[in-house]
């Protein structure tokens, strides 16, 4: 990361003196106040890493750490699809499901900086085990990883589908399901309809809990949301409290992979 900072400076013809601060988006859980990565499930070996101290020591600049989903939420709220919306929820659907919540114009961090872990809402208390240790979490049903898992389970049980051909012997991924559905594959279409259903169930919970004016959704799976949007919204409307969806808008996030970076910079600017 430090090498990366110096490479960026070199490329842009700047020196450290031109830089006011550094913002870093990292996977949670983090200790926001201590600037520490605690034990991110997707970064094995990173346990209690004092990243803020390490970076400040080498770069000699004020440095700020933010949970990557919160950073993305902030970027969408300040500059993106949720600009100017006081009650705003950002949801990213990719490998897992992440979220960030802005209430009354402020990012909701929670007592231990771990608020808005929306992917770990229990959707089915009898459901499969989740990486977090619980069972039947939203991301076990509606993430891109889950979509691929449902496809593999169907293939293993003998469903005829193009999905396995498209994967060409490699592990089936969510994009194979979307490609198969575009070619008229019936099983793939069923899976994507189910994806919309599970997303809608989770959205209803989000809407009931936070009463947002707008939800922006990002992450790889939303690139194809035309294929499940109607089902997702239908299920959300069927299940959410009616008063909470009257003014609600559900839109695609504006920033792609850059959302976390822009948000991390915003954390530094605004601190
Ligand atoms: Zn979980």
Describe the structure.
42% of the residues lie in helices and 14% in strands. Strands 7-6-5-8-9 form a 5-stranded mixed sheet. It has a two-stranded parallel sheet with strand order 1-4. It has 11 helices and 9 strands. The site of zinc ion has 5 residues, from loops.
The count of helical stretches stands at: 11
Head-to-tail CA distance between termini: 21 Å
Helix fraction, binned, reads 40-55%
Sketch the major β-sheet. 5 strands, mixed
The SS-based structural class is alpha/beta
- pLDDT < 50 runs, ≥5 residues: none
Radius of gyration: 20 Å
Q: What small molecules accompany the polymer chains?
A: zinc ion
Mean pLDDT metric: 94
SSE blueprint:
Elements (H helix, E strand, L loop, with lengths): L1 H10 L10 E5 L3 E2 L4 E2 L13 H9 L3 E5 H11 L9 E6 L3 E7 L2 E2 L30 H5 L1 H13 L6 H5 L6 H9 L3 H25 L3 E5 L10 H11 L2 H4 L3 E4 L6 H12 L1
Parallel strand pairs: 1-4, 5-8, 8-9
Antiparallel strand pairs: 2-3, 5-6, 6-7
The structure holds zinc ion.
